[in-house]
User: Fold these one by one.
Assistant:
Number 1:
Amino acid sequence: MNSIHSTAIVHPAARLGSDVAVGAYSIVGEHVEIGDNTSIGPHVVVEGHTRIGRDNRIFQFCSIGAAPQDKKYAGEPTRLEIGDRNTIREFCTFNCGTAQDVGVTRLGNDNWIMAYVHLAHDCQVGDNTIFANNATLGGHVHIGDWAILGGFVGVHQFGRIGAHSFNGFGSMLTQDVPPYVTVSGNPASPHGINSEGLKRRGFSPETIAAIKRAYKTLYKSGLRLEEARAAIEAEVSAYPELSILVQFLAESGRGIIR
């Protein structure tokens, strides 16, 4: 049974699953779909063509599914898709996509999103990420699984942040951050790999050592990027976890952080 506060406004055409809670003074728009057991706190606006999965908890004062902050946007019916089991804290702003990209902004599953986080239009965020307070993504940013963004991290539009990377407090990310790498600073620079995070996620000591060698090949060997990528690729058969690093380097559009 759903729990809709008497002061909330839920459009009759909105589609709500079972055991959905909508708090005081919140607004749920016409084209919104909310999955089972999701909680929408007080003073939240959920609008646009937005689909929210199950078991999410969205705290007060969030703006979910509003029009993108893009001057080219002309009212096209673009979308926002949020997966399952996400925690989204106070004052977050998630915008719909644009027709100039895939037309959808996506947040995956099991993400921990702290207060004042901004997901701009067309961002694609994976699973199990952590965004600390005030982390901000420009448009068209891609974030890999298990990536961590510290407080006040800013990511330039079209940037790519690799899986399992750790991006320290206040980092300004104007180029791509490869998987597994720890960066910090303004502008950000690399400082080894996210060893502690990999240990917590069950990576074996041998695999972590192989990732450390790959980091040294990429950043310490003096090889050109293509040469370093080829050298790392030669290790993929023994350590498949390196494949996401090889693929990332091949697809990087803005160049990697140095």
Number 2:
Amino acid sequence: MTQLCDRIQAVQDRLQAAAQRFGRPIEDVQLLAVSKTRPAEMVAQAMDCGLREFGENYASELDEKSRALGDRHPAWHFIGPIQSNKTRLIADTAQWAHSVDRERIARRLSEQRPVGAVPLNVCLQVNISAEDSKSGVALEDLPALAEAVAPLPGLKLRGLMAIPAPSDDFEEQRRAFARLREAQEDLIRRGFELDTLSMGMTDDLEAAVAEGATIVRVGTAIFGARG
């Protein structure tokens, strides 16, 4: 427990240092703990260390952890590829879906969001490095997808998400994140009201903060390397 709290504090210190270095208020950068493959007990421990926002990649695992935590209710963010047959679990349980990259998925989430629930916050996932192995909408198709998703009931389009190709070069990391920021700025000029950039992980969070990340998704630095 003490080690977990220490790791969380170390990540928060990194975020604080990056925000200060690049002239950003730390309040504008939210830490999202990526808890995929970790047991519900570890999520509970992280909550005891002060975290409230958790990211999951698998809908069934999200559902199981939510049930296991009982009356403890963290804010759940779904950050993995969204399968059509799993949209109801996400619509029922999550507060955020970061990885919407098709109109069909957005429509299913909209239709399956429970009546009376607050809107599901949605980010559009962009394949910012144009990798064949990555999910995400192509940059040239992003405006059309935003046009389709923004008016759907039960959803609130908040911004963009990306997982760039890995790089150890800080400036290359920044360039990838800058492309996402510029794509969001273009959508804002087109009239979309967006406030969220979900980008940056353990190895590149400083570059993400430099380019305007508002949500940084961190797993390894918090929970340790997966076995």
Number 3:
Amino acid sequence: MTEVVVITGSPSANSRSAALAAHARQLFEGRGVSVEQIDVKSLPAEDLLHANFNSAEIQAAIAKVSAARLLVVATPIYKVAYSGILKAFLDLLPQDGLTGKVVVSIASGGSAAHLLALDYALRPVLASLGVQSVIGNIYAVDSQLPRSPNGGYHIDTEIQRRLDAAVDAGFEQLVRLDLALTT
């Protein structure tokens, strides 16, 4: 069973939000958790835009979400909202498609002015899909994710600490679920 699915909602292949998601994924995998990835930008654009529920790729992505117990949702913030490509994907999920799931939400943006976008834009959509709880809202500004010499991004120590705390909380949730299932 897939325990965690990381959903990256950036239209860019090399983005700050994807770097944060990759770090969260590594933290979960380091704890022995089974993790799968959905890069929304890799799904067929026409199927996303036309809400083609019959698309094999869309159905496979929805099945991954359905099988997961915890989701990491990562997105860049544009104009105080999460990315449109992420919105297109979330719109394809069934109305109760996230019922009982726990979410760690992660975002990156140009300035602290967009800090509340996770609470005011993303959280209501997740709640409408039935999310049990959001255990971490991690928002990083561009200055906390400078480019590294290898072309990736260096994650600021404070953001790493917050990611660690969110993954720890998520791991504890997974352990509690396991205990509840075995008793």
Number 4:
Amino acid sequence: MANAAMAVSGDAPALSASFGGKGKMSEPEIDEVQVDGGVAESFIAEKKIGERIKHLRLKKSMGLVELGRHTGLSASFLSQLETGRVVPTLRNLARIAMVFSKDLSYFFESEPQTLFRVHRRKERVRMPQTGADDPAYFFESLGYLVPDRQLDPYFAEFLPLKSAVTPRAHQHDGCEFLYLVSGALEVRHGEATHRIEAGDAIYFDANTRHSYVCLGSVPAQAVIVSLQHPLAMPLAAAQRLANNAANGRIRTSGPVSMQRKVARTG
């Protein structure tokens, strides 16, 4: 490392000597490269290899002695490895990786970032019903900052139903959860009708046709969470979904957004 530092800090002639006649940087001689042992250990420490090994072991509810039997390494050595007191060799890492069905690169990849997003109320966009001069609802996405999200959360406000408007039911893959914050709603799920009030929550199979109707003279406000991907379902439900798709009554080309879902509600 000292030689490399001297080359970088030298003057222009010293730098130009590193290039060949055709403008390409020549490979340094092996005996000219010196890697400081402390730097190597710091590199290993930054990758938190010991912590990753311990995470894999605890995830499998495996003790040090059991891991030792699988790898041929002593429990004492594995303990020191996990706490960073010893530096692992590639051979030892390979043994551990094979036990947990991991590639060697697992121990050197950048540590994944923990997912955490804040959706500020003042930054959310309030969207009206599309294509309606007199919208029947407004909604705000509560998860627009989350990439590749599995759940779609929304804040929805359903306006009192006008007598001339007939609520239209809809259905989609997966499940749906609704928590009513204020007001009252009539929820139609299949052939059944349920009245829910502020503080009530419902969780239901969204493959069954359903709709919401605002009751009373004030808007009903709710938090709705829909599951983008379908869950495992009984054979009868799967057959019903397939039949509905064949008859053109539902879309099967992807997740149903709140825009399409609420557009059919009353």
